[in-house]
Amino acid sequence: MKRRPPAILAIGLLALFALLLCGARSPAKSRGKTPALKEDGASAGERRLEQAADALADGKVEEARSSMGGIPDGRPPQGKEDDYAYLRAILAPEGNEHTTSLEDYMRTFPKGRHRREAALALARVHYARGEYDEAENLLNIFSPGVEKDFTGRQALVQCGLAQLARGDAPGAFQFLRSAENDLVGFAQEEAYFFALSEAALRASKPADAGEALRRLLERHAKGDYGPQALYALALTMETVGRTGDAAGVFRQIMIRYPGSYEAARVRDRGIRLSPAPTGPLSLGGGYAIQVGAFSRRDLADALARDLKALGVEDVSVKQGPENPAVFRVRAGSFATREEARALGERFRRERGFSFTVVPR
After folding, report:
1. What does the angle CA 203 – CA 175 – CA 94 come to, to the nearest 5 degrees?
2. 266 in Cβ contact with 253 (< 8 Å)
3. Taking 60 as the threshold, does the pLDDT of residue 175 lie above it?
4. What is the spatial distance between Cα 192 and Cα 158, in angstroms, rounded to a whole number?
5. What is the pLDDT of residues 222-239, one digit of tens each?
6. CA 332, CA 314: separation in Å to the nearest integer?
7. Residue 290 forms beta bridges with which residues?
8. Domain 287-359 is of which CATH architecture?
9. Domain boundaries, the chain
């Protein structure tokens, strides 16, 4: 029976995808672009394949898909079957086609030159679905102490998150600690410190959590994880009884990141920067984010349960008027579109979700 993660200390896991899940993108040169072909006789298919690889390395997904679309289906350039199959898989639309294509690639090319990248991409798919055991199994090919490239370092962070999500906080903490030399000083450092702090909090090690968060904030003062790190630091202070210091950190979130999801959560805790208004308080908000739409109610309910387990508030499943019905998963309750969008952007960055801001 698949284990579900216990409720988190009100801050939610990273995840992810993404970077997530796992930190900042690598510069194109460190990802290793495919060198341009020099042969005058290079086929049109080979040129399009290289154009797609270069566009993907630069984050231009639609341009990469357009280049791949110029290669007839099932007719990869001779000698480039591995590259062709991988690019088709990694560029497939999200959903079952993407998953199936990655699985087909790994089955067809068990020793393919892109197996590590495909394993990481497939693990992230399982992680986003809440299938943490499957994600961890795929990531077992990556080990601390030996990873020397961008993909390997991303995978180490993702593996620690998968362990944490399936409920093994002590194991995740030890694994991430063992990977410190692989990650500190590289592009994944910020995501690593935040994942380490999450694991330490869940493993009842507040001092280690605080140290990881302080290092993150010192080295990445304007990074992607600023509001989450400050919120986690405040919770750590509360855990050890420093409630006054925690309140001060909570207020710093409202000052430095007023439009963030964490600032909205601070306001939900009743913390204010100025005296509360004397008039009646408005309950709830006018906006939410929609993070999924399903033709099956059980799939929508499963995503809703996972979001609640991550500490997300006001999660609901709405049945639409369509025939057959569509079940939409929505989260949050915000007074403004900007606050709702902040939560959506966090889901996109950490778990790879697309989202839409909708009226409640």
Report:
1. 95
2. yes
3. yes
4. 9
5. 888 889 999 999 988 888
6. 5
7. 330, 356
8. 2-Layer Sandwich (3.30)
9. 28-177, 206-268, 287-359
Whether pTM > 0.70 for this model: the answer is no
Q: What CA–CA distance (Å, rounded) separates 192 from 252?
A: 23
pLDDT in tens, 311-321: 777 888 888 77
Residues facing residue 160 across a β-bridge: none
Instruction: Give me the residues paired with residue 330 across strands.
Output: 290, 316
Cis peptide before 324 (omega within 30 of 0): yes
Domain 28-177 matching CATH 1.10.1270.20: the answer reads: no
- Of how many residues is the chain composed? 360
What is the tally of helices (H) and strands (E) in the chain?
A: 17, 4
Query: What integer pLDDT is reported at residue 309 of this predicted model?
Result: 75
For the chain, the average pLDDT equals 80
**Rounded-to-10 torsion of CA 92, 97, 99, 104:** -90
- Assess whether pLDDT exceeds 60 at residue 274: no
DSSP code, position 352: -
CA nearest 161: which of 145, 138, 187, 184? 138
317: helix, strand or coil: strand
Q: Residue 154 pLDDT more than 90? A: yes
- Cα radius of gyration (the chain): 22
Condensed to tens digits (0 to 9), the pLDDT of residues 42-99 reads 588 889 999 989 988 888 889 989 998 888 877 888 889 999 999 999 998 877 888 9
**Topology, domain 206-268:** 1.25.40
Q: How far is CA 125 from the centre of its chain?
A: 10
DSSP character at residue 356: E
What phi, psi does 126 have (nearest 5°)? -65, -40
Which residue in 205, 260, 203 sits closest to 229, CA to CA? Answer: 260
**107 SS3 class:** helix
